[in-house]
Design brief:
heterotetramer; C: Gyrase A, domain 2; 6-stranded antiparallel β-sheet; 4 helices; 19% helix; globular; D: alpha+beta; Folate-binding fold; two-stranded antiparallel sheet
Amino acid sequence: MRKYSVFAVAREAMRGHKGWEPQWASPEPRKEYDVIIVGGGGHGLGAAYYLAKEHGITNVAVIEKGWLGGGNTGRNTTIIRSNYLYDESMDIYEHSLKLWEGLSQDLNYNVMYSPRGVMMLSHNVHDKQSFQRHVHANRLHGIDNEWLTPQQAKDYCPPLDISATARYPINGAALQRRGGTARHDAVAWGYARAASDRGVHIIQNCEVKGIRRGPDGAVTGVETSKGFIGARKIAVSASGHNSVIMAMADVKLPLHSVPLQALVSEPMKPIFPCVVMSNSVHAYISQSDKGELVIGAGTDQYNSYSQTGGLQIITHTLDAICELFPMFRRVKMMRQWGGITDNTPDRSAIQGVTPVQNLFVNCGWGTGGFKATPGSAHLFAHLIAKGEPHKLASGLTLDRFRTGRLIDEAAAAAVAH
Amino acid sequence: MSGANRIAGQGRLTPARTARFTFDGKTFDALEGDTVASALLANGVHLVGRSFKYHRPRGILSAGPEEPNALVDVSRDAARRQPNVRAPVQEVFDGMKVESQNRFPSLAFDIGGINNLMSPFFAAGFYYKTFMWPKAAWEKLYEPFIRKAAGLGVAPTEEDPDHYASRYAYCDVLVAGAGVAGLSAALAAAEAGARVILVDEQPEVGGALHYDLSVKIDGQNGYDWAQATAAKLKAMENVTVLTRTTAFGYYNHNFVGLVERVTDHLARPDRKLPRERLWQVRAKRVILATGSIERHMVFANNDRPGIMLASAARTYLNHFGVAVGRKVGVYTANDSAYEAAFDLKRAGVTVAAIVDNREKPGEGVLAEARKLGIEVLAGHSVVDTKGKLRVSSMSVARNGGGSARSIPIDALLMSAGWTPSVHLFSQSRGKVAYDAATGRFLPGTYAQDCLSVGSCNGTDGLQATIEEGLAAGELMARATGHEGGGKVELSGENAFEWTGGMAGSGEGAGVDTTVKAFVDFQNDVCAKDIRLAVREGMHSIEHIKRFTTNGMATDQGKLSNIHGLAIASEVLNREIPKIGLTTFRAPYTPVTFGALISHSRGDLFDPARKTPMHAWEEAHGAVFEDVGNWKRAWYYPRSGETMHDAVNRECRTVRSAAGVFDASTLGKIEVVGPDAAEFMNLMYTNGWDTLKPGRCRYGIMLREDGFIYDDGVVGRLSEDRFHVTTTTGGAPRVMHHMEDYLQTEFPHLKVWLTSTTEQWAVIAVQGPKAREILEPLVEGIDMSNEAFPHMSVREGKFCGVPTRLFRMSFTGEAGYEVNVPADYGEAVWEAIWARAEPLGACAYGTETMHVLRAEKGYIIVGQDTDGTVTPYDASLAWAVSKKKTDFVGIRGLKRPDLVKEGRKQLVGLLTKDPKVVLEEGAQIVADPNEPKPMTMLGHVTSSYWSENCGRSIAMALVAGGQARMGQTLYVPMPDRTIAVEVSDMVFVDKEGGRLNG
Amino acid sequence: MADHALRKAPLAGRHGGSAGARVTPAAPATRLSLRAGADALGALSAAFGLTLPTRPKTSASAGGRHALWLGPDEWLLIDENEADLMALAAGAGVLHSAVDVSHRNTAILVSGPHAAGAIASGCPLDLGNAIFPVGAAARTVLGKIEVVAFRPGEEDYRVECWRSFSPYAFGLLSEGAEDAGL
Amino acid sequence: MLLIYCPYCEEERSELEFRHGGDAHIARPTNIADISDAEFEDYFFLRDNPKGLIFERWRHIHGCGRFFNAARDTVSDKFYMSYKAGEPKPYIPGVSPASEKPLSENVGETYEATEGTAK
């Protein structure tokens, strides 16, 4: 693989960039693979990369219905953080954050991981109790997360309105300085390029239509729009469509898919230095390298596989954004869109074996999938290779819904009393 | 005169009515009705902006919202400043201040222009390949540089003083676009009697009639016909005509978002007027008459100021009376551009030549060109241009090579053909279909009740457009049950039918060339960038878009998408439909946040709920805290008191004398009906059959999964009537939860639920002197301990008004909760206060309430529990009926992980050093020296300084807590480790004798 | 015994709106949340002296007393003369649930040629004459709160909401009225 | 924003008045205290999450207050129909699986037999 570097770019500049080769190969599918990964998003492509890099398994195909990164990888607001509450969550998100920190160098692809800090605003006594619980838990787990006074919060994010007269005055904030953002497309492309370079087959525009199983019940391959492709192991990581794919193997999951909406403003000169989140008023905002304000909105209330949603979801979020940052009322929304998120009852992901032999699943990342990409992919690769979960992912298994061992990050945020 | 390039006798503006504005500090004259673009052009200004990446000088390309180059900063005053405004859309008003963007120090000399020289280095996607070493430099060095270079306009820095309005509206037929097609459709629908809303983004209706002078409808000049028709429609009571209004989003079930610009064109707007008005329209049927947008030609250096769309030049001449140049060239691939040349020529402008890359231009226009003596170079192309800040010449060559000839010009008009505006159609989730014959994407499969008419539907020809519009209007009216009115008929005539058109790169900009032939102007995407993307394996149009940023600028690809596709299809050698089209997303053009939130700001952002006693509390110095939507009195500091002092005083006073507390925000639900008790049995863990009328019980409600959902004291008023209380934040969801089970699981039960949260003002009076305070105010209730024991409820009168008086306590003291109809709350509170104060009682807030209940180990759901806690974890086993065979949560409670050893249980914590108050949320460990990640046993849920105990107290969820009584555990803080002892949760009056005090 | 406590309405002293749409707080009234099955309607109608409506979005009025259909077994009764509705219900002697909500709700009157427009600033109901004629009533939303909209007259609307939401409702209706009146 | 037909109000109203209630026709076991962990998991957690036809619950919470059911397509978000709580799962011609096609003309009976009481 041609190494990317400033020198390579300079050399190509001299000759009109004629020398660049495709970032990944687009081969015809083989008859059979050791592993077929269903879903060409960051998680799937990453898992393929780590299978090849760390487990020496290279007879692998990533099968994507549309185009690489066309699902939630390319539709999210790219927030990265690891300041979760429960051990199971901290384990996987911190593992992920550590990988983010070296990802550009590991992949030789600039994914623009930008640790500009993620600040979560506290608006009342209850928020404060909840966030400080996070701060303490994170500290003892070895994760950076600190409590800021309102003034410290404003110093870190000058556009913030910390006046006491605000409808929901800010009484502090939790800041994870290592949190930030990354370039979503680059994550998919970088993994695809590095995986392809290690022999992984990347097959786009290939829809999985069925999962074939042998007499012993174990999987034998997938029926696709390009015909049957054999596989010793099948790993499903098709966010937004996991229920549909898994149903092909008669596996029912505790998932419901709902549209999650987001929007960007017109590009403007740098004004917003970090990522700000406010759970109480439902606002998530940062500014992209192009200058757009990137704003995460909420989910629609009903199951849907359409990547669109209602205008009221957008306006509800902008209400909050303009309350926190009154100077943004004259800013313009340039584009809104939606992605399909697979949500579990406890809002934590599922990664593990399934009742079907040699069929593995990675799903239910809800609205948090992007930040988990490298960690999830890395641990998913371990699961696929070893047939059992890595200890950092051992809490995410499917059986918890039977035993009641839920990892309820949502409930832990509790409710106002 | 308002500008040297204004041609007397041309255009529709009134020379007398002038307005003054400044551009980059220089003052210019304009005519009323001018746009910023037309006014600048009238004054000979073409250089208006700089491009995003290369900072190339840019001029005015279009006369509409598709403008990618001429984006300016417009302000009325410091706080009313709007970046990224489209100069061809923004109308001039007297005194407006216009500034160019993305340049430093000046528009004419921009340091950023260096990027243009460096451009070979900045090829598409270059940043993915570099800036990776050294590791830290991306964040510290490269990224800040890139961010600063990007970003166009400067964000507003002051709060927007303007206000915005909103309106929900319904109609039978919504017509988007008031050109020939839209007006015809609206007219037919309106005449049939349908409720019609007609919207157009321009100040006046007419669409293409703004520039096309050759059109006659019913013998009338086209533009005049349009205005007359609009006037007629406005006069009809079943029609609403909205101009300066953009249909920006087409959502589910024919829900369409409109934004109406109300004051941005006014010099001195009435302060009452909203700046913009958001219309949320639900239409039974929608007619899309959104027209089409002219494409530019893709050739070397096609971006110099002075190079613009042919139809734009026509608009500036025929509507604004402005000649965009004195010696213009035309470069086209279709007939429509010829008419621009004709109009300019007739207006006295020199037309250097019409360069047509087709061998065979349309007969009609060719003949007319000859007649007017305009040189037509068929089969030729413009292969390059010159001119630093404005185009000065074009070099023209025969197709397929040959020497280029340079022709001096001061403006170049181009047209590659027309792109139907299928944006709204696509937003409606309709599927477009590619028409290979004309090289256009047209509405294919419809997903909602709408129809496209006119050029957005690929309909060419005036008469055909009129008839399609009329037919659609009539059809949609009929579909909504309106058949009135006679048949509307209109006849139109115009000079020429247009043929031709191309997509993709032209001569000299093809494969293997490295010239800058711009596809997306604003984002500086050239034909070669598209090809590079393909070379690097980006074969999906979405990949190409994201890799090159083609179509991602503020115009969202209105001009660039089709060219980008064509260039990709050429190198991939796959026909256009196989490569696909990027998704069209709302909004059609950018919409201000202000319009979208409209009224939701300040007091109307989110309702602040206040209790009937709020005014009294405010007057008595209460500090408030937000609990859900409620503002609750937190504590009542006296002069000089800190929060700590005040809370200590309040705590002391309640236990030594008494305290008065506003408990109105607690949720209340009245459960009424013969099966009320049975329903309560199913909703709560407790048993309710044995509860006698007049008595109360503390109840716990679970979710089906066995975790605590809510709690509260329930009073039984009679056999068939319960007064249920919930947590403050829980009230709405508990009501919903109960209704859910009642309606869908237990519909056989004869019981009804009514929320009475706000019917009652609730005043808690707690403490040894509580009864003494209340007794004189009560009528018809025997207050003696025997007649009215702890956990009872009585109905009677209080201060002469009906009351539900509860004998209950959340403090551990003898106490009462006085419920009176809300409007009496303040008066009753004052009456109680009048007796309480002299007896040494105080008013106390939620903080003191929290401390006092913690001293007794009473939990607060949502603070001491978090949705993962069972009644057993919370030491509330006594409240879970062992007899019942069913209640919500009964099965969830039995799941393996909910009954296993070592679950987190609620216990008390006492710090070894009684002066140390733990931090709520602090984590607890057994071994303070364990390296990270440490094993956390649980966390502190409640922690206070207890004045009554003279020490700190705390409650905590601790793994296996019940079995750890007396154990020493540790709370590691950043600066120190705090040793604590596990204890029970009752810190005051363990026997509970004071309750009956 | 103590003096009779004085009543203080949540919107006391407010006024707003425009010439085209006046926004004013309604006078105090007694209110009942009535729940009952079809079999009880006859007796209850007799008790209240008006026929409880059984069609969606309709109401019945008699002498300042209104019965608004809110749901298939739910009515909001309003008596502008403050009659004791609880007592009347008790007299019906049939199975039902009557809960006094006189103080839970408060009402805002919106009147004038642009009244509908004022309400449409935050209410997603179709208020067109054909869909929401005189006498129509429905529970719905206004901005971020729940309200009951009732149209007693051609240019008169009564907006009922819970008391703590009434300042919000009043503020939004006033802004809407100003805009609608322009 | 959806436009939802409420079978009790007998007209279409804005989604703003409604609260989604999850999957329809999932009856709470009458012997819930005695079911197995697996049965509880199936009842409370596992869902079809179909791409296409879904039967779901809605509550007209800011309208008539009633829960009701609706058949909707989760791709187009178009409603096929709404029906009152307790009514059997309807057969949507051309959409429902053929296996659910009513056997006799006497649709009601067939449903009572096959579906039991709907949620």
